[in-house]
Amino acid sequence: MRTIDWDKETKTIKLIDQTLLPVEYKVIECSNLSSLCEAISSLRVRGAPALGAAGGFGLALTATLSSARTMDSLLNDLEKAGNVIKSTRPTAINLSWAIDRVLQATSDAYDVEGMRDIVIDEALRIAEEDVDTNKKIGKNGAELLEDGDVVMTHCNAGRLACVDWGTALGVVRSAVEDGKDIKVVACETRPLNQGSRLTTWELMQDNIPVTLITDSMSGHVMRKGLIDKIIVGADRITEDVVFNKIGTYTHSVLAAEHEIPFFVAAPTSSFDFEGWEGSVKIEKRDPDELRFIGGVQYAPSEVKVYNPAFDATPMENISAIITENDVFYPPFIIDEIRM
Ligand code: MRU
User: Fold this and answer.
1) Ligand 1 contacts CB of residue 162 (under 6 A)
2) Residue 145 shares a structural domain with residue 122
């Protein structure tokens, strides 16, 4: 199934619980706003494009559950719910982008029932478009990969981070579909291990060769000449930087040092065209994510912890940005990407 979907019969959200992978594959149902917000905060659903779909479906859920009898009161419920959902994770712009897009679509409504339908349809359209967009990113990005390439990636920018196909891993999938022999090196991505738990799992499902390394091995494998290209996803792209999972910046510096192409694959919905590095809030997560691994204590329980979920990679470290529209090369002109 898709990573996240709207169940038209039960009018609930179905999603793969990514906290259980790779040990258990389980689809859970979110039938109210608080269960959806819990699923987002605890990373049962995660990855910028999947969060966009979650935001849209969150409003579909709100429209379904709301007892509002006028357009004004339904809009009020939707705006309130939108703010609650947006506050769950502040960095990935797709979440607020999708919520704003659905809210915007309500302006076409003539009556309250029509508004409910518009909200659900727009949320479904966002999810559907995500799959199509990722296929286009894949097609554009596949041109950059050669037969025999070893591609390093960080975190999970695959099927599980999107509705389907993936951005960075979508590029790999498209190249493999074109008949190229591509091998992936996945960084484990401490502290929540999206690389070791999710990237390896989903690539192995597709029989795409993958080798797991710790994050701190990336310099070593680059220096040894074992990596041809690096592709990562993005949570938010501003004029000056790319925000992505913590550790991405470190890989980019090492890639520049070793003259390895460093690509970012992302939909235009991940661009913050008005933003810059300083305008963006980087999510700080629970200190216990570093003190414990799988419930086992790995640090003194009272130790001071710094746990930002994302970092910022300056544009000068990026060789190309792959979107659904094109492949862009430096200098990146934000207005050209905006189109
Ligand atoms: O904290 P997460 O797991 O939501 O972080 C996800 C990432 O950093 C991904 O690389 C990014 O969202 C791109 S997903 C196509």
Assistant:
1) yes
2) no
